[in-house]
Amino acid sequence: MKRRRFLQAGLASSVLAGTGGLSSRAYAGEASNGKVGERGSAKNVIFLVADGMSTGTLTMADQYLRWHDDRPSNWIALLEEGVGKRGLVDTSSANSIVTDSAAGASSWGCGHRVLNGAVNIDPQGEARPPIHTKAREAGLATALVTTTQLTHATPAGFAANVPSRGHQHQIATQYFERKIDVLLGGGEEHFTAGDRPDDVDLFEKFASAGYAVARKRAELDAIDASAKQVFGCFGRGHLPYELDRVNSDSLKADVPSLAELTTKALEILTARGDGFVMQVEGGRVDHAAHANDIGGLIFDQIAFDEAVGAAVEYARNRDDTLVILTTDHGNANPGLNSGGNGGERPFETLTKFTGTHSPTLDGINGDSTVADIRDRIEEVTKIRFTSSQARTLKERLNDEWAAAYGRMNGTSAVLGQLIANHTDIGWVGNYHTSDYVEAWTYGPCSERLKYMQDNTTLHDMMTHALDLQDA
After folding, report:
1. How many C-beta atoms lie closer than 10 Å to residue 221's C-beta?
2. What whole-number distance in Å separates Cα of residue 423 and Cα of residue 348?
3. What number of other Cβ atoms are within 10 A of residue 341's Cβ?
4. For 1-47, how does the pLDDT look when each residue is reduced to its tens digit (9 = 90+)?
């Protein structure tokens, strides 16, 4: 198929740069030091999470890259080579077969299933030590790298104990008290004195404790790899969607990509030489699925896949690093529904998107005319809505239209359904699903991954590999 410029050279220069696909020659066999299955045979663990990644998300990101760049995604390339171990994971929480991110991350973090919304607090109210606490007690360095607020549920699952994921100010305090060595993500509002109920300036406290602090890309770039501890926070809330980031000169200048954050963290952790446990989260994959935002979804998944490339590139020539690649749950179950166009229509349409639903909807409201709405949609996506489609969105903006399935009533969901008429990519809903999810492991103790397991077993794999206390 004829290829097009990728978002007018925006994403082409960022998302698809770097590893550019993993070399198959590098994966002739499993990384091994002769004691792959032995307890304590790993020095490092890199745990990568594409939050809220349904199978359709993984599939379409790979198909897009094959269509556009004539290569598979890094994740699928690993499966094609047959290296590492692949299995399915049951993501249930203690009280539901449909988990939330707090319970999902806690299952990895402490090895116990907890109630939805809790972070490493079991159903009996007992605080269970998370993996980062265990690692630190064993003399290992710890790191959290994410595109969400650092205090969000998934990173918190490796490092905090709170009865509710909403206690983000408390989570931020625990990060400082527990001396997490590398923190890279968003969420300034939970660390800034004026935003916290205790009026404590955690930025100042981190700096006074010897952390190198960065709030812009240039400041992070200037931090030497010999820095022992780093706190990088690059936005008041979550980091921007990748699609929005690469189409904004100011965001590109100030906010690193997830792959760049991952690479920087690995440089710092390696220079320490202590061994480490690091979680890397592509958190906005989940947010895009909630919003039925196909542009946000596919390009954040591709950005996560570049971080996968960076992590596996790091591990592949070592015999001491366990890599775990998975998701906490599916979300919205998106999928390409039409088989008559070979992918040309949806993927060609996606290359023209210059923003997600957020900037699109920021430009219109209930007072906008049908013509205004059509123009705004076309400005951001290059899709020309019909008058009927624009009128449906206007009615939704004025709360005058309802979907047959109530979960799909939100304005963003309605926009996603209307865009689906032009991409052939539909959604089953806009919330978490009960799907069994993909997991892939590589390196020491990776063979402990079974064809099917509970999410808690990934905690046990890490503790076994590092010779830490089991759950």
Report:
1. 11
2. 9
3. 12
4. 434 333 333 343 333 333 455 543 333 334 444 445 789 899 999 99
